[in-house]
Design goal:
Largest sheet: 7 strands, mixed
Strand content: 15-25%
Number of helices: 8
Shape: globular
CATH superfamily: Vaccinia Virus protein VP39
Structural class: alpha/beta
Number of domains: 1
CATH architecture: 3-Layer(aba) Sandwich
Helix content: 25-40%
Number of strands: 7
CATH class: Alpha Beta
Radius of gyration: 17 Å
Length: about 220
């Protein structure tokens, strides 16, 4: 793969992402470089997002480099999101973004055989809805794909988010491994370990003198 560089046509510039990470506000923005790095590192072709926002612009910036697409669902109207989050204005012009203004359960019901490399959950914080979201999306996550769930260590909502996440994993019946970044309200990183009909992550990243990584299911 030839080297790729951010150009003026990209959704967000490096400086914008960096400024958001360094801003005094501490929420999902502190994880923006993580989102970018994971989407780019996975060479993601398909990403799903519960809850749209600044994260959508970050993911789309990475996906312009990988050639992938983003599907987002949110109960807030897109025009209201854009009014509240100016960085989304450019994103609305992207052919790589499909935005659904409808409940997540309706979107999940219509996914059929679609498979995703990466999923970000920063939508509903109601434990029952979180569990339904997680149980519904995990069967669509490729082996070694990643599910990121924000606010799992938030001071007021963390316990309910963790309960919803764990219940969703249980309902899905899938085998996963998991850790969490313990800052900015916590970001759970859930890796799909099961081989499944959704396929598996394929990347070409490697040193010039070696070959791409050969992922192995955890525990090793």
């Amino acid at each position: 793969m030839p080297p790729l560089v951010l150009r003026e046509t990209h959704i967000m510039q490096i400086e914008q992402i960096h400024a958001a990470v360094l801003a005094a506000e501490s929420s999902l923005n502190k994880h923006y470089w993580t989102l970018f790095s994971i989407a780019y590192g996975l060479q993601a072709q398909a990403v799903f997002e519960f809850g749209a926002g600044g994260s959508s612009a970050v993911l789309l910036t990475a996906l312009e480099l990988t050639g992938g697409t983003l599907m987002s669902c949110d109960l807030e109207r897109l025009q209201d999101l854009v009014a509240r989050i100016p960085s989304l204005r450019e994103a609305t012009q992207s052919s790589r973004w499909v935005f659904h203004h409808e409940p997540s359960q309706d979107v999940l019901r219509n996914l059929r055989g679609q498979a995703f490399d990466l999923v970000l959950h920063d939508g509903s914080h109601e434990p029952d809805q979180v569990a339904e979201d997680i149980a519904g999306i995990l069967p669509h996550l490729k082996q070694f794909g990643l599910l990121l769930v924000h606010d799992v260590e938030q001071f007021a909502l963390g316990e309910e988010m963790r309960r919803g996440l764990m219940e969703g994993i249980r309902r899905s019946g899938r085998r996963v491994s998991m850790t969490s970044l313990p800052y900015s309200d916590g970001l759970a990183i859930v890796r799909m370990e099961d081989a499944c009909v959704a396929g598996r992550i394929q990347t070409t990243w490697s040193k010039a003198t070696t070959r791409p990584a050969a992922p192995a299911a955890i525990p090793w």
